[in-house]
Amino acid sequence: MGPIVLRRLLLLGLAAGAVAWLERPAAAEEETRRARAEVNAALVCEALDKAQWFFDANRSGRDAADGNVFPWRGPALVHDGEAVGRDLSGGFFDAGDHVKFGLPQSTAAATLALAYQTFGEAFARLPHERTLPTLRHFADYLMKTVESEERIYHQVGDADYDHAWWGPPEKREAQPKRHGGRPRPVWNDTGADVAGATAAHLALMHQILRAREPQLAQRCLAKARQAFAYARAHPRTTTGKGAYGTAYYPSSDWRDDFAFGGAALYLATGERQFLEAAEGCGLPLEVTSPPNWDSTHFYAYLLLYRATRAERYRAALVRAVESHLRAVRDNGLAFYHDHGWGTLRHAMGMAFAVALVHRELGGSERQLHFVEQQVRYLLGDNEFEMSFVIGVGRRWPLHPHHRGAHTDPAQGPGRMVHELTGAMVGGPEYVGGERFVFEDSAANVISNEVAIDYQANCVAALAGYVAIAGLDCKAGR
Ligand SMILES: [Ca+2]
């Protein structure tokens, strides 16, 4: 923690908290004080280290067990793609289920790559390097989904079938098709959203790997080019629907992901065609949504600013950050009214965005304060006096909605059998006024589900904070 900011936070916290604590018994007051004091630099570093782990829990494919931090994970869904005669195994399960959805898969991969590229020093100081293997696993799968400039697969597995059975991924393929077993259906009605975010991830991976693994970096770039060519030819959103005609992750805009991909390709290659395509797609510059699977506008502005240094992109970044800074509620959580499901993923998305601007444009103490406030809320300095990252802090959720963490399919959702260390749950649910509630129940998918897009934002925000606050995780301060 920066000592000046920490001191100010403590003063602010004491001043704001004094009102809320008036009617609290002394013992509870002491508990709250202790919970606040425990969110320190060492805990933030531990959180970043462990937050990387969750991706191992959701790893899919033949090599899912290789080097996995969780001994209870094994190979799973190894025949993905058989429905179309291609190998589409690998990648990551979406959340507490085992579907591979294109939008959260590609945007989580791109978010994590952007965090790794921008805040590399935060990862370098950790005791364990787990994010680069995760990024390679994402890249390996996303390259498989890009068959050619004419075809990209965006989804494997039907959500309605998948959700009808509760059990670990290693046993999924033995189930009947109506319970998500073989052969898993595959979708290729891909739009420029998934294709654009895939291009962004692979172009960023080219930059990350260029010096250390040049051959893999070249493969990433070749596939990024194909994905972007596909996106150019399909200027629309992805429309895939499952067994009951429901589109999970309905996409509202493709131009953000397209511009993100084009800008990333320009930065990787220096070829102006990519920049011209990105700038010519009609990207709106007024979106103030937290970065998430449906909106990569902020990342598009950032990379376009890196590419051009144009005032309009700088102004869009500043406007977005200002709206995030104004979104802080009485309890300290940054929150937009229309994002009540999985609130922490959005708070972490905003914290990452503000950290990016702090790094890119020269930051203010107010921005650093905001990022720190969100991280502190996440790790225990909140009205529930609990950390929302499993295995980090003094108290954390015990009932995450996650099939792999439970062993008995007959039991259904309940207490986790295997600790899902490092996973960030959805977080407090908004119930009106200034009130939020939190239910530690595996049946509550609003507050207690875990997901790769949540986790990408969580890792990105923690890395951003470690970097801009100058924490030394090796030294533990
Ligand atoms: Ca989008």
Shape designation: globular
How far apart the termini lie comes to: 7 Å
CATH C-level name = Mainly Alpha
As laid out across the biggest beta sheet, the strand order is 1-2-3
Order of helices and strands: HHHHEHHHEHEHHHHHHHHEEH
Helical content (DSSP H or I, runs of 4+)? 40-55%
- What is Rg? 21 Å
Strand content: under 5%
In CATH, the architecture is: Alpha/alpha barrel
CATH topology: Glycosyltransferase
Bound molecules: calcium ion
- Give me the number of helical elements: 17
pLDDT < 50 stretches: 1-25
Q: What class would the helix/strand composition place it in?
A: mainly alpha
Most strands sheet = 3 strands, antiparallel
How many strand elements? 5
Number of domain modules: 1
Mean pLDDT: 91
Helix and strand layout, with pairings?
Elements: H1 3-20, H2 26-38, H3 41-51, H4 54-57, E1 100-101, H5 102-118, H6 120-124, H7 131-145, E2 155-156, H8 159-163, E3 186-187, H9 192-209, H10 214-233, H11 255-269, H12 272-279, H13 297-308, H14 311-325, H15 343-361, H16 365-379, E4 429-432, E5 435-437, H17 452-469
Antiparallel strand pairs: 1-2, 2-3, 4-5
Calcium ion (CA) binds next to helix 11.
Question: Explain this structure to me?
Answer:
48% of the residues lie in helices and 3% in strands. It has 477 residues and is mainly α. It has a single domain (39-469), classed as Glycosyltransferase, CATH 1.50.10.10. It has a three-stranded antiparallel beta sheet with strand order 1-2-3. Helix 13 packs antiparallel against helix 14 (311-325). The chain is globular. The termini are close together.
